[in-house]
Design brief:
Blueprint (H helix, E strand, L loop, with lengths): L1 H16 L6 H15 L3 E10 L2 E8 L6 E2 L4 H9 L3 E3 L17 E8 L5 E9 L7 H12 L4
Antiparallel strand pairs: 1-2, 1-6, 2-3, 4-5, 5-6
Helix pairs in contact: 1-2, 1-4
């Protein structure tokens, strides 16, 4: 229950903060910062955006990121291609994982959609521990990502 309560507080905080602007970059920066600060196990928290068929890093918190993710590989592209959130308990067992930072142990990737439902990118969070994410994380992170839609 503690995890749900924490996520509910994060959601309410973001609900208020994101009312201040419709700018997607500002919204993504705010979400990245809040989530990274509040999720103590997070190693890397940020967004990748689809631009001309490439998946490019946007705003993030944490160590240096891969700037461009190789097409149709890794967890981020899997989430885009399957059009759903992907939870990876152990990234070292994920076929085609892109290791931007070897300290990453587990990962969750949530597709970001525009108001018409088209996927425009992903929220990607890497974790310092194995099995760092579960269905509660999925539920709330999907809810948080929907706040980006203006």
């Amino acid at each position: 229950m503690k995890k749900k309560e924490r996520y509910e507080r994060i959601y309410q905080q973001l609900l208020e903060l994101l009312k201040r602007t419709d700018d997607i970059d500002a919204r993504m920066a705010t979400v990245s910062a809040i989530l990274h600060y509040k999720l103590s196990k997070a190693l890397w928290t940020g967004f990748y955006s689809l631009k001309a068929g490439e998946l490019l890093v946007k705003t993030y918190q944490g160590p240096l990121a891969c700037q461009v993710l190789k097409k149709n590989t890794g967890v981020c592209w899997t989430a885009i291609n399957k059009k759903k959130t992907i939870i990876v308990p152990d990234v070292h067992l994920f076929q085609g994982h892109i290791a931007c930072d070897p300290r990453s142990k587990s990962e969750i990737v949530v597709p970001v959609r525009d108001k018409t439902g088209i996927i425009t990118g992903v929220l990607d969070i890497d974790c310092k521990v194995l099995n760092g994410f579960d269905e509660t994380d999925k539920e709330y992170l999907e809810k948080i990502v929907r706040l980006l839609i203006c």
